[in-house]
Amino acid sequence: MDVGTLVTRAARRYADRIALDGPQGTSTFAELGDRVQRLARGLLELGLKPGDRVLDLQPNQNTYVETDLALATAGLVRVALNYRLHADDWARIAEDSGAVGIIRDPRYDPGLDLPHQVVIGENYERIMAAGSVDAHHELVSLNYTSGTTGRPKGVRRTHRNRYASLMNMTYDVLGGPPGPDDVYLHAGPITHTSGLFLLPFLAAGATQVILPQFDAASVVDAVRTKGVTHTALVPTMVARLLATGESLPELRMLAYAGAPMAPEQIRQAMAQLTPNLVQYYGLVEAIPPVTILDAADHARDDLLASAGRPGIGVDLRIVDEEGRPVADGVIGEVVTRGEHVMGGYWGVAGDTHRVVRDGWLHTGDLGRLENDRLWLVDRKGDMIITGGYNVYPSEVEAVIAEVPGVREVAVIGVADPDWGQRIVALYTGTATPEEVDKHCRNRLASFKKPKEIHARADFPLNSTGKIAKNVLRAEYV
């Protein structure tokens, strides 16, 4: 099933229900379906052809959802540009993808000389034309990696990838299709984690509320005034919600993803915000969810550091450096295969062959399997080698997160002439470095203890809202 079919089905089945409630007003499923069909037709009448790449540069708003669905319906390939990126980043992605068109919010002008330009509030409405669309292209989008370990690469996502994600999000993360009274809140960027819930709630005829950008106070207000029942956040957003001191028992599900969250912070979120937490793991190259730690697992304290079990149709293994499966409990690289795995990188076949071997995607994440549950250890590139010992930052971060008054924490390795690398711990909150150091001495082996501990006012974040460790490491170069 492709995205256009889902839109048509939802418009017919849930015609009068509210589909979107966002900065640009509300629309029913019938209105959304009509606008998506007309926009898809209008884009093709501009001269765009199925398979053409079209840049999409918008913040969270109603037209973002319309554009996402219309491009897929028309068989065009959507290339999402995060509006937080620099204009140079936009230009590089435009060149790499070979884009021939752009749909953008008037607040953001990358100055690109493309033959097809659509601007919200200017010619966007005019381009919508009457009629149906009969176009299809297997490639639905190019999703660019964050580029923290090199130049961003375009990940080819297909209709099959999105359908696999739809099924896994619905039955593994949500625990079944949403009901007509359920309301999903897009509090984070729809370009990333939050956008994975677009199709499950569309297919179920449930309302989606859109915030222009994340703000902890706005999330609390939306949950209480809009009847929000579900939302998804990255751990830094959860930390900022916790800092408000507010509780959100109305939430049937608070999902978190994008980075590990320390067990102590998970416990605090379950006690303060809502007990209904779900975690899922995935990556750009393997559309989430790959694994899921459901609400029942969150009730077990011994599982809070786990990433959960593989989703429907997901094969998962841990392998050694030669790609051979290892025994349960042994740390190795996480590899996965299934319909959720990308169709390859755009224009760099060599990189595709390097990470996808015999159908298995090599994720670059280190972990172990125990009783069919995945325990992520860290990214290969984040592992610290100090004095000949391997130290996983996530382990040290989990210990520091136990200290009262610590809000967010990041542990990095910094070049050191004596140790090879020294461990540096950075955190935000009211705890003192002396309190953090004392706790580390009581809880960590001597070689795992940070050589430096510094409090910060805040952390640099990347475009997805995660702590940008590459920026932190650069501060010490």
From TrEMBL:
Q: What Pfam families is this protein classified in? A: AMP-binding (PF00501), AMP-binding_C (PF13193)
Q: Which GO terms describe its molecular function?
A: ligase activity, forming carbon-sulfur bonds
- Cite the Gene3D superfamilies for this sequence: 3.30.300.30, N-terminal domain of ligase-like
Cite the InterPro entries for this sequence.
Answer: AMP-bd_C (IPR025110), AMP-bd_C_sf (IPR045851), AMP-binding_CS (IPR020845), AMP-dep_synth/lig_dom (IPR000873), ANL_N_sf (IPR042099), ATP-dep_AMP-bd_enzyme (IPR050237)
Please report the stretch or stretches of sequence annotated as the AMP-binding enzyme C-terminal domain: 395-466
Keywords from UniProt, A to Z, are: Ligase
Hydrolase as UniProt keyword: no
PROSITE patterns found in the cross-reference section? AMP_BINDING
User: Domain AMP-dependent synthetase/ligase spans what residues?
Assistant: 8-346
Under PANTHER family, the record lists: LONG-CHAIN-FATTY-ACID--COA LIGASE, MEDIUM_LONG-CHAIN-FATTY-ACID--COA LIGASE FADD8
Entry protein name: Acyl-CoA synthetase (AMP-forming)/AMP-acid ligase II
